[in-house]
Amino acid sequence: VEASIPEPQREAWLRHQCSGFKDKDGFEREVVRHVETTLARSLYNCDESAAYSACALAFRDRLILEWNRTQQRQTFADSKRVYYLSLEFLMGRALDNAMLNVGQKDLAKAGLADLGFRIEDVIQQEHDAALGNGGLGRLAACFLDSLASLNYPAWGYGLRYRYGIFKQEIIDGYQVEVPDYWLDFNPWEFPRHDVTVDIQFYGNVVKSTDGSGKTVCTWEGGETVRAVAYDVPIPGYDTPTTNNLRLWSSKAASGEFDFQKFNSGDYESSVADQQRAETISAVLYPNDNLDRGKELRLKQQYFWVAASLYDIVRRFKKTRRSWKEFPDQVAIQLNDTHPTLAIVELQRILTDLEGLEWDEAWNIVTHTFGYTNHTVLPEALEKWSVPLIQHLLPRHLQIIYDINLFFLQTVERKFPGDRDLLRDVSIIEESQPKMIRMAYLAIVGSHKVNGVAELHSDLIRTTIFKDFVRIFGPDKFTNVTNGITPRRWLHQANPRLSELIASKTGGHEFLTDLTVLNKLELHINDKAFRKEWADIKLANKVRLAAHIKTTTGVTVNPAALFDVQVKRIHEYKRQQMNIFGAIHRYLTLKAMSPKERKKQLPRVSIFGGKAAPGYWMAKQIIHLINSVGAVVNNDPEIGDLLKVVFLEDYNVSKAEMIIPASDISEHISTAGTEASGTSNMKFVLNGGLIIGTCDGANIEITREISEQNIFLFGHLAEEVEELRHSHVYGTHTVDPELAKVFDEIEKGTFGSPQDFAGMISAVREHGDYYLVSDDFASYLETQGLVDEAYRNQEEWVSKCITSVARMGFFSSDRCINEYAEEIWNIEPLRIDRGSEA
Ligand code: 475
């Protein structure tokens, strides 16, 4: 590396090389320097926000030095890289994570104390980076943490939205959306104004013949938008590896203004062009598990995919290898179908621009891509209308048609004369208008397709993609069960528990090998250990109770059972069943004599989560939860026995506080609908138990921790179809206990019944698609078992400790190693630590 600096200047460069701060003194010096110079603030009015900024800048400087070295190391090693393409990266806060990953939080704590600040307050100043909706986006963030921590040469590629997921406010019990403008001050990104790619849209395709008589297609005309790179350093835990997340921002290709237009007096339209270009990366679509087919979304997808591929190809070309080696150097993972156009774009680059033959190019393409499916919900499967693609990306449409033609020819050869099969698997759906089925395109263009939990992977193999298993054989389809990073979701979110575990398992090794947790089972009868375990849970609950008090005004008893459901609001996740259950509990308590009531176990029902702004039913659910809270929380007969609270604006940093405070959390989706779930893993890892259906990763959690330690209920995935059929064609009656709940709502106990009519009629009149009524009795019964179990605190603590001890499988490190071996064929870059002074 040093030899690349010319000899005459080498000494000077090396003499002045930066090294970042090494001790508390060096850290303080950096913080003060940033306050005084970078922020231009006087030391005498430095508030917590300035302290955060300076502290973040001090760590950013450190990270970028490691980032530089990592990039050099990876380039010199010349090994294969993986590129993770995701429209969402739900990163949350960066400072706490950076301090812990580089092992300098204690140093920073002491340094900040010297300067007059409490580190907790400084950390709280940071705005979440919320470039995602829910599970899919947070999974991408956990994967980046694991990739860096395991020293894989990896880059993330995404969009730099000016507005992340909206901020949720609850006003009079209703959700109100407020824009999330988060870029005001973002110390974690490095603008790369020299790394730009011009992206073409619209225009038309011109056919011509080259010297050898070969037909050449050229995409001409249209408009151009410029992609500018912003790099976010991703530090690994306890390793110098600092990977890169590259986010693209859009701006007008002509720079600030189109000067031609400007000088000719057309000022307005030059500004309009600029704004139109910037619109592409302006806002994250706030839909979770829903596809809406909007033109701007398609523009976002192509803009991001084309810029990323240009960047990847540029890097590959620097190695001067032949094209056939591309898949040996590059693996690209598609996080859902959102980046599927990358398949088409790479085929276009290789054939139209680089002159490769179709078959040779297609062979390279299919060996490069892997596709992860995250949902079987029909409304979430992406389709784009042919006329829209024709208009926006005319050359890509031709390539898609060719891909489909060659694919259908192979199907015809394998299954001659099966017209139904050809229609069913065609990438083009013969509807009005014709639609492109993006999942099918992703399958055909990838060498591996994976689901995210065992049940989910079985379901895609036997339902939505079954024909493709016949065509390509079963080996193309695989499972990689999701995981979570124990750094953020245990060490950072629950530092006291992390220390307790470290003290019993011989240090912090469990943070890099989560299976080490199994050592905890040896201490299950250790009195002092159990006491500290219970104390930590209580302290976490006290902290959450204080948050509930300040944000909602409701006083909750930390000794009560905390029952938590926090996730995006969706009918398939069945928050409606939870709140109907809470109403049922309220009615049951009301019907008791005061003496009987005294014997009951106090419970706090805690909800949180955003509804997509256009999802009317989800908003109705939020409104009912708040309306029930308003009645129950103010009923003197009920007191502490039941509280119902809705926590505003659930996000990553709130999750870090809420999850460690849970006794029981709800993962109660209709069986077969939740692909995996990942918060279920976070709750158990933090010493909470779960009530759940036989769905997604709940099943594998049960396998690991044993049936004794989880509260499962409800119908199984294989029963769902028949039940739905019987609702529509049979005689379908609502469960009697649920009917009582409906009667109470309709009496007006929780406000105007019309406000909740949709939720009731979905069950009673519209076929109860999500089986709320079918599962209600079993749900209530199992909640009764939860109460019973919680009364025996010794037993309960044993269940919690045993469960945590058996959660090793759910680390995203395990998950990333599986991707690396089975799909990407990449290896970690060994680091000789001696040379990293
Ligand atoms: C699953 N989002 C979880 C998680 O694998 C799973 C889809 C289309 C458009 C916009 N957003 C989406 C999802 O499909 C999504 O978030 N899926 C989730 O992926 C990680 O744990 O069960 O629902």
UniProtKB/TrEMBL annotation:
Keywords: Allosteric enzyme, Carbohydrate metabolism, Glycosyltransferase, Pyridoxal phosphate, Transferase. GO terms for molecular function: glycogen phosphorylase activity; pyridoxal phosphate binding. The modification N6-(pyridoxal phosphate)lysine is found at K682. SUPFAM superfamilies: UDP-Glycosyltransferase/glycogen phosphorylase (SSF53756). One of its GO terms (cellular component) is cytoplasm. Transmembrane segments: none annotated. PROSITE patterns: PHOSPHORYLASE (PS00102). CDD domains: GT35_Glycogen_Phosphorylase. NCBIfam families: P_ylase (TIGR02093). This is Alpha-1,4 glucan phosphorylase. It comes from Staphylotrichum tortipilum. The lineage of its organism: Eukaryota, Fungi, Dikarya, Ascomycota, Pezizomycotina.
